[in-house]
Amino acid sequence: MPPFSPPTFTTSRTVPSRVAVVAHGLTEEALGADLPGGLAASDLKRLGFTAGSGQVQLLPSGDRLVAAVGLGPAADVTTGVVRNAAADLARAARRHRAVATDLAAASGIDAATATQAVVEGMSLALYRFGYQSRAGSGGNRDSLAKVTLVGSTAAGVRAAVETGVAMAGGVTLARDLVNEPGGSLTAPAFANRVRRVAKEAGITVKVLDEAAIRRAGMGGLLGVSRGSSNPPRFVELTYTPKGVTAARRTGTIALVGKGITFDSGGLSIKSGTGMMDMKKDMAGAAAVVGAMSVLPAMAPKCRVRAYMPMTDNMLGGDATRPGDVLTIRNGKTIEVLNTDAEGRLVLADALSMASEAGPDAIVDLATLTGACMVALGPRIAGLMGHNDAFLSQVEAASDRTGERVWRLPLPADYRKMLDSTVADMKNIGGQYGGALTAGLVLAEFVADGIPWAHIDIAGPSASDADEEERTKGATGFGVRLLVDLVASFQKVGSE
Predict the structure, then answer these.
(1) Which residues of 147-173 are buried (b: 16+ CB within 10 A; e: fewer)?
(2) In the prediction, which pLDDT does 160 show?
(3) Going from the N-terminus, what domains does the chain have, and what CATH number goes with each?
(4) Does the predicted model carry a pTM greater than 0.85?
């Protein structure tokens, strides 16, 4: 199939004459007043439309359709509500070539913020990925190619359209990477893809091959890759704000993303069912790449360096065995008791590397533990780390973007669960608290004094169904959160 192409978005004060669907956003209170576009409250109520969030009702109106899009109670309308309503509209109107909507204006919230949300919601809801033949693709093809946003045409609103397009593009890139089969997106292929992205975005890229990784002393990454027929890669990206002196920068953030392109579990092999969606185990790295691709268009004043260890976790004849001891770049040793707890091994090297550069903060994203999914379900990422002020910035970015996180503790007394008799630590703890002990492993490789956030995205990295702006498969979770965090970042003191 051809690559996904979202609709184009334009702004206008009035509804263009040649559109197939005119969509009006309605709050619950609006049903009691005169409605736009020939809509009648009595007709809508008879059809069961109450303007509740998630409702879309299409009606004929002359030679086109008019759509009522529910926003819920006016007092409850948020950016997320607008984004979700836009996604619902996109799905309802996807077979029509041109749509006009006043969703942003009808929301009652800041026009630029609402406009960006509409662009994101409609673009992401229409996303598709697949290898279907033309004959087999059937109803998978959409017609929606142009969306007119009716209301303000102010410069700030037009800029919000561009921001929304860029943000959706970063999320789409992350989804594409995660959805790509692990047999084709090997570590070398992933690194090559990132090279192309970096070139297009105008950011600096450095790729370490297996020999360079060995010279760098990345024993965790090398240990995980031993069972693979594909050599590992370690990719670094750097965004430096143009025209901004070092003194005027808001700081430097390091982003670290887990890039396990397929996870069989290694010798501690997963079940067949547990392995089925393990191409997504590089969703952390994909989110980092997606975020980095957006930064030049957003032009934040923060310098950003990204680190992504890439390999698959397979069962070759020289695969790391339970009981083996690996030496991480910072010199600490880890006894590997479960080869399926491999993400923390490759992240240990990446966090060590990131720490050496002395950033003002570090964020890592990883599909790290099933335990986090047990605790928080499929929609919410686990947040752990050091420095309350910085973690609060991550939470604020989460609130603004709708990519939900929930803070979990890193109890110091749980560290003894990782004690080893032959190494500095084991790679797994006890039966319980698996998300927390995984976080405690990572904490060992962040240099003292550096604010650090670990985001376990095992749950929200993928969706089982088309819902809100998510589509079945990869969600691209973390792209919007990271971009927002970088744009709003403020240095914090050490704790």
Answers:
(1) bbbbbbeeeebbebbebbbbbbbbbbb
(2) 97
(3) 8-150 (3.40.220.10), 168-488 (3.40.630.10)
(4) yes
